[in-house]
Batch of 4 targets.
Target 1
Amino acid sequence: MLDGQFVTAVCAHIDVAAHAITYAGAGHPPAILVRKASGDVLELAENGLFLGPFRNVSYTNALAPFDLGDRLLLYTDGIIEATFSDGEPFGLVRLREFAAAQVNSQPAAFVNALMNTVSIHEQEDDLTVVVAEAL
């Protein structure tokens, strides 16, 4: 491992039959869960230490309902760290607001709109997004 560099990870298991998500993270930004029926935007923030040569590190899972129309958003920190010209980051609050405003868009359109929104800002990191929707 190089100084100042580390690896984060996220794992999400979607159980279609049980209408549930099991989620765990290792230093990764929290997943966003958009609840279609209520419009709620939740953070799945079950997170442990980033990956590395650590002894006695444990990671735990969180369980959340995943109902018809709900959307799960996984993303890298480059999304929330993209900055405006004044140096202000896009941030988690804006991402949550964006996800709520786009609740009725198709997943591909959501990803395109998000990438277009953050790519107009300065980035120093990768931009990666994964969207899963319960159909």
Note: The mean pLDDT is 89.
Target 2
Amino acid sequence: MKRTILMSLLVIGAVVAVIVGATTAYFSDPETATGTFSAGTIDISVDGHNPWNGSFEMKDLKPSETGTIEFKIHNTGSNPVVVWKHIGDVATDTGVVTEPECEDEGGTWASDICTGNKPKDDIDTVTNYDLVAGSAVIFADADNLTIADIQSMWMPLGTIPGHGDLVVKQSYHMRGPDTGNWAQGDTMTFDIDLYAEQRLGPGPAQLSNKLFLDNKSGDPDWYFVADGTWGILTWGSSGELVAQGLESGTGYDLITYVEPWPGTVGVICSGTSGSDGKLSVSNCDPTAGYEGKIWLVLDSDNDGSQMTAWQPTRYLFESNLVDIP
């Protein structure tokens, strides 16, 4: 999916006439200038195709094996663009049933027919996902994030300068210890969507109850930094926040923030990072009477009702603006 955004500036000039007595005359020399304006364009192509209708297929994967999908995004215009991607419409199927699969699922195999088994086809929960955009590692295999963890969540890939390129590489690693004979012959299909937008835009519309949180640079343009520091919020009645790359042994609050500064703060959930900089907190649900932006901030930088300090390079911010239902 690719969207085009137009930017335009319209300048309106006003001419003021001064009226004097009819008997007075002045020498004059009127001049007229012509003004023009043009709209910039935001447009991308993928692997030389615009629109992109590519397809990828990974066949015959077995436990501990990895399949790879790689493509190149080209910014066809002169304006820099920020690009996001997401994997959606994930569907799994039991596919071809074999004797080992049938028995692993508690069934009986006779005359090439399986009976009494309890089908299991959720290979999306045992397939690790890693993502590299250019030289930036957004997710690594060691992060142990599965397709089920990241599906339908928009992930920022970074900024592509005018007429520039960005190579995106994704790997799909079927976990060895977690993948038994029940997965034999199973299939998984999904869509890969891309969204390009001018810098400082709000980002793509939220598609699900999953939100990617990332740290930002300290420069005025507030670019996201793909450096292994991130968070994923899955909200709902038993919502969960997982994050890594944080400061070790530090208290954090997941908040909603409403302008103007120092803002109105609502604390959704809180936790303390481990010595490895990882954080996992349950019962995080921003739909429970909250509104505003979603940030992960230091517990010491807010009093539960407003911000008391501002250290943005130590926080995580929502990667795209969210309308909380």
Note: Residues 76 and 253 are 41 Å apart (CA to CA).
Target 3
Amino acid sequence: MTAPRMYAILIGIFVGVAMTLAAAGIYGIVASAVTQRTREIGSRMALAARRGQVVTLVLAQSLALIAIGPIVGLGGAAAGMRYLEGLPFGLTPLDPSTFVYVAAAFAVVALLASSVPARRATRVDPLVALRFE
């Protein structure tokens, strides 16, 4: 029982590291996109765009990443699960509920990571943004 428990703990640690890296990567990409679009966001704010519209604009961009990620990830996971077939107890190599839960968890992490730059975009001062070079 010691070896399977150790494998389960190691897999749990790797999952935590993967979630952290995914959140940091998505945060960085969305924050960079918000910085590059400062003039556009400032123009929208100057033309009376509401904060909710700006948040929706930024989150819509990150939804593309969130939609592509599970498609690529599920393909890689299905291929990789063949090698890990004997490790998880009670799971078949292509357990659909596990894949759905993991994809949903990563989608939630991605939305949380992209919500911080989206909220930061609502605080763009239109005058400063229009003078931004």
Note: The first helix runs from residue 2 to 36.
Target 4
Amino acid sequence: MQALDRHVDFAVVDRAGAPVPADQSATAMVVDMEFLPAFTHKPKVSAGKVGLPVADGPFAVSIRMMVEGFGHVYVYADAGGRGYTAGDVAGRTLDFVLEAAVSRLDQVTRAESRLGGTGLSSDYHRHVAEARTLLDDARRATAAESRAQLATDALAGALQAGEMLAVERAQQRIAARPPRRAFRFGCNAFGYPKHGEPYARLFADALNFATLPFYRNMVEPAEGKRDYCQAQKILQWTQAAGIAVKGHPLIWENHAGLPSWLRGRSFPQICDAHRDYIADAVGRFRGQIDTWDVINEAHDWANDPRHSLEQLVELTRLACDATRQANPSAVRVVNNCCTWSEYVASAQCSAGALGRPGRSVLGYLRDVLADGVDFEVVGVQMYYPYRDLFEIDRHLDLFCALGKPVHITELGVSSSEAPRKSHIKMPVPRWHGHPWSEAQQADWIEGYYTICYAKEAIEAVTWWDFAEPAWYPHGALVDENLHPKAGYARMKHLVQLWR
């Protein structure tokens, strides 16, 4: 999909009819009908208006904005499921919030029809009916302020209804099936042995799957001198506790995972170095660690060396083939982050400008599969993604449709908005408009895990981290003193309920 010379304008206002802040308008993107960026582009932002290029096929538009009455999320306008076309929109100015309300209510209605409408709560039906009435009133409104208020309320109600539909349908599927005894509830176990026996006990009480560290810059900071002691100490504990394990990651070409001595080398030299490391690490732990994140974020995000699209596929093949050679029984996970692929619109990777058009996560995985790369599991990371649970549910289905098992390999939301030093910014978005708290984290955990556990293709969910301080600010399940948070208790309850 490419951009045409034509453009479309959207008026973007808040519930009071005032222009939304520029930092919200600037997130506007042209997306395809899978809601992924269609090409590299920037919106033209002026007071209360966003201009975007028109795509050469059906397209939608997404903007991350504060929807009063719901929260701070990306919302989508897709012409009621049909997608906009150049002929429909060229030269027009559309009311974005009204269009988004129409689109979300249509998405929810179609999803309900596809899944069947029986057994849904009265609250769900009430939200749908109220959103439909508000939307009809907004279409008839002549005053701009009244239309903005009604359209915003309709959108908020449709978003709430969508989340309820996703979770209630998942609960129904779970109730109708036997327990999934093989499902893995995991977390990285990097806090052991530092936090000792209390950490180990709390971990084992709730979880049955641990991720062990194999970051190349930690294991081999100097070329040829490797030290696996951290992973080995964790492995001794997990083996005694009967906890399944995974090694993470074998290849990660982000500055945090790529040793300084490997930077600046040619592609063949980089491949040789990765092949040697995989043979050593996987071969050394064969029979003890049989599941591996063989390559991490190679879809144009963790691409510090600026490999070409073809080289990234070849590097993925190398990771998978070298792991199989070192351990014929290995379960190989191709791991991915930023799965809505906003970086495609800006042509960015984690180290800055990419220097060429980017490729979405789904595009990368489809290319890898089409090229015959052999692996077992699709890995998906998801920290709070500015999306509601209905959109998360729909998005995960895209990965489940690839035909391989799916692991959620990293996951997290905050339990507080208190200031904390971190290399990432404190989370700005608020789910349902409330400040992040232990209760909010616990509620989000319940909704997200319910959706995942109900999908047969998803076989594991791994939280990140277990104890504070966490990589994602306030994202751990227990605090610095190893006191369980409400999120830990909620997760433990779900595990006990489903086992």
Note: Residues 3-174 form one domain.
